[in-house]
Specification:
Largest sheet: none
Structural class: mainly alpha
Number of strands: 0
Number of domains: 1
Shape: flat
Low-confidence stretches: none
Mean pLDDT: 79
Radius of gyration: 21 Å
Oligomer: single chain
Strand content: under 5%
């Protein structure tokens, strides 16, 4: 794999493209580990990975800005759609319309104020965040508002952790220099997939029960 990376770089393949392809298995493994071993709940591997890649493409600050704006616009539109009792699909279409108009207005204001930080952004990562809105809204519909907020915060927190790892220069050089690291994620996922013990948060949550049950278990 190292020779393949060198060959692609020598033939004009962008280094960032290679890195993003290699980082996806790492991100997916971190998310799986966080869910099964630690107990962090997210919207799933796909949304968390897309959010991380979007942050890498447009930067963490602007990524958070767009994420929060998209989430706010989607939530407000959902609430308005509930009041007029629209069906799910038309309601979600209105959510996407509202978000698209919000982004259009934001880009227009940025161009008027001559803010190249936003006007010069690639639109694809932003559109990917827009598409993920349905996941956020579905969580708000299927669960309580408190549960949906908690799920969103944990998804965002894990995506930020993955972003900082992917932005670490040493890790980037190591992954490009030794892409065989990716193969280790296969073994890691097999081990995680066979885990049958309690998650870390469950040890913390039920620590009193475990503490009292321990001595009884040891008694003859």
């Amino acid at each position: 794999m190292s020779q393949a990376v060198e060959y692609m770089l020598a033939h004009g393949i962008d280094e960032q493209t290679i890195f993003l392809v290699l980082i996806v298995p790492i991100i997916a493994t971190i998310i799986a580990f966080a869910r099964q071993i630690i107990g962090v709940k997210t919207f799933g591997i796909y949304p968390s990975t897309i959010i991380t890649l979007s942050f890498l493409a447009i930067g963490l600050k602007l990524g958070l800005l767009f994420f929060l704006l998209i989430l706010a616009a989607g939530t407000l539109t959902r609430v308005a759609g509930q009041r007029v009792r629209l069906l799910y699909m038309p309601r979600m279409a209105l959510v996407l319309i509202a978000i698209s108009l919000m982004i259009f207005f934001l880009i227009f204001v940025s161009s008027v104020l001559e803010q190249p930080a936003i006007t010069g952004l690639s639109i694809l990562p932003i559109l990917l965040l827009v598409v993920l809105t349905e996941k956020f809204i579905a969580a708000q519909i299927d669960q309580s508002s408190q549960a949906a907020i908690k799920l969103t915060i944990e998804t965002l927190a894990l995506s930020i952790v993955c972003y900082f790892l992917a932005s670490w220069p040493w890790f980037r050089q190591a992954l490009l220099g030794y892409p065989e690291i990716v193969l280790a994620t296969i073994v890691m996922n097999f081990l995680v997939g066979r885990w049958s013990g309690l998650r870390l948060v469950e040890y913390i949550r039920f620590r009193d029960v475990i503490k009292h049950a321990g001595p009884r278990h040891n008694q003859p």
